[in-house]
Design goal:
With 269 residues, the chain is of the alpha+beta class. The protein is 30% helix and 23% strand. The protein contains five helices and 15 strands. The strands form four sheets. A five-stranded antiparallel beta sheet has the order 8-7-9-14-15. Strands 1, 2, 4 and 5 form a four-stranded antiparallel beta sheet that branches. A three-stranded antiparallel beta sheet has the order 3-12-11, with no helix packed on it. The protein is globular and about 45 Å long. It binds magnesium ion (2 copies). The site of one magnesium ion has 5 residues, from loops. The site of one magnesium ion has 4 residues, from strand 5.
């Protein structure tokens, strides 16, 4: 397993790419409302990333992915194709994007509620968001990948009974969008590759309200929950450090835009 240890300069470049992605998602948070299509959101994200001198990491990924972003609505977990279907009240929208700038990728995701939704779904959002930070707490030198995985699974699945998606995992991020190590959201403490100072990983819990099982849509990309229930997804890029992880991405601009947009429900925090 080739796990890169990044220099301080490289870490700052990944931070720059990650923050550009977060700024782009914050722009999405400003435009989300009933009636808008996820294709419009994707077009804005692509233009925003290009306008800031970067390339959208997802576009043409594996010579195949056709869009700049993945926008996954309701029972779509991740890898959703943007569509021309207008969003409506109560939709759950995960916006996931990547930017390639100065030779390094950033990759981040955030899930929004259009209008409002049930307390049950709002709780799923809160717990998924919190589980991300519980995973990040374990991203310190000397721990193992399984410590992150266990922290997320323990909180979401064991404590709250949610379904933790098994087929998709977090990953190293840097010169390539997806690098070693894989960072699952389920696993055993003390298992997996050792975490060392300077390794940059994307931690991204994908948590289902119902069962953990998922299936592929006919487009070959979109992943949907088997039971049709909603799913939440948050993703940060994190540098492993001694003592405390350094979160390279930031949700600050996204959360501010979410709270300021009357068409989004930010009451789940
Ligand atoms: Mg990712
Ligand atoms: Mg992502």
């Amino acid at each position: 397993v080739m796990i890169h240890l990044r220099s301080p300069l490289e870490i700052e470049l990944i931070r720059k790419s990650a923050l550009l992605v977060n700024d782009a998602i914050a722009e999405a948070a400003k435009m989300l409302k009933p009636g808008i299509t996820t294709m419009q959101v994707d077009a804005m994200l692509e233009q925003y990333i290009l306008d800031h001198g970067a390339l959208p990491s997802f576009k043409n990924y594996q010579n195949s992915y056709p869009y700049a972003s993945c926008i996954s609505v309701n029972d779509a977990v991740v890898h959703g194709f943007p569509t021309n279907v207008p969003l409506k009240e109560g939709d759950i929208v995960s916006v996931d994007a990547g930017a390639f700038l100065n030779g390094y990728h950033g990759d981040s995701a955030y899930t929004f509620i259009i209008g409002t939704t049930t307390d049950e779904v709002k709780k799923l959002f809160r717990i998924t968001n919190e589980s991300l930070y519980k995973g990040i707490e374990k991203a310190v030198h000397g721990n193992r990948v399984g410590d992150i995985a266990y922290a997320i699974q323990e909180y979401t699945e064991k404590q709250h009974g949610y379904g933790v998606v098994r087929e998709l995992v977090g990953h190293g991020v840097g010169r390539k969008l997806h690098e070693e190590p894989q960072v699952p959201n389920y696993g055993k403490r003390g298992n997996g590759p050792k975490l060392k100072e300077g390794t940059v990983i994307a931690i991204e819990p994908m948590i289902n309200l119902g069962v953990k099982e998922v299936y592929h849509a006919e487009d070959g990309w979109t992943i949907l929950t088997q039971d049709g229930k909603p799913s939440a997804h948050y993703e940060h890029n994190v540098c492993v450090k001694r003592g405390k992880a350094d979160i390279l991405s930031s949700f600050a601009a996204i959360e501010a835009a979410e709270k300021a947009n009357p068409h989004l429900d930010a009451s789940y925090y």
